[in-house]
Amino acid sequence: VKIVSSFIELETGEGISLHDLTPALNNAIASSGINNGFVTVTSQHTTTAISINENEERLVEDVKAFLTRLIPPNDRYLHNDIALRDCPEDEPENAHSHIAAMLLGSSEVIALAQGKLVLGQYQSVMLYELDGPRQRKVNVQVYGE
């Protein structure tokens, strides 16, 4: 069994934005030389999430609207009391982003067979930016033989 670890780095969009990691994951898998096993994909940030979903532009807009309705950015959150916390002055008021990330999850494990991710026809591995724009980093570990 072999384990190969790497990172995907990307610049994300404003506010909530979704980014298809599948092409970069395919590159990491090809570079690993591993054909069968599994891949873990883990966000390195508390205001992003990883999920498998369809990368279709109207669905992406629906997801953004739904998350905004579910966890309104302008609601009152204790985390946003910046003056009462020990943090940098430029700290964003982003409690809604942390809550959304918690609900969506920070990682996925995907089977790998014959050098390919085992995903359905319309499935992509997506990074959900919840507090952008930012520079983000995702860990990829390919396990197998």
End-to-end separation: 5 Å
* Proportion of residues in helical segments: 10-25%
Q: Mean of residue pLDDT?
A: 96
Helix-strand pattern: EEHEEHHEEEE
Report the C-alpha radius of gyration, rounded.
Answer: 17 Å
Biggest sheet features? 5 strands, antiparallel
Task: Provide a count of the helices.
Answer: 3
Unreliable stretches covering 5 or more consecutive residues = none
Please state how the strands of the largest beta sheet are arranged side by side: 1-8-3-5-6
Strand content: 35-45%
Number of extended strands: 8
Q: What gross morphology would you assign?
A: elongated
What this model shows, in words?
By secondary structure, the protein is of the alpha+beta class. Helix content is 24%, strand content 39%. It has three helices and eight strands. A hairpin with a 2-residue loop joins strand 5 and strand 6 (116-117).
Give the gist of this structure:
This protein is of the alpha+beta class and 145 residues long. It is 24% helix and 39% strand.
Can you lay out the helices and strands and say which pair or pack?
Layout (H helix, E strand, L loop, with lengths): L1 E10 L3 E6 L1 H11 L4 E7 L4 E6 L3 H14 L24 H10 L2 E7 L2 E2 L6 E9 L2 E10 L1
Antiparallel strand pairs: 1-8, 2-7, 3-5, 3-8, 4-7, 5-6
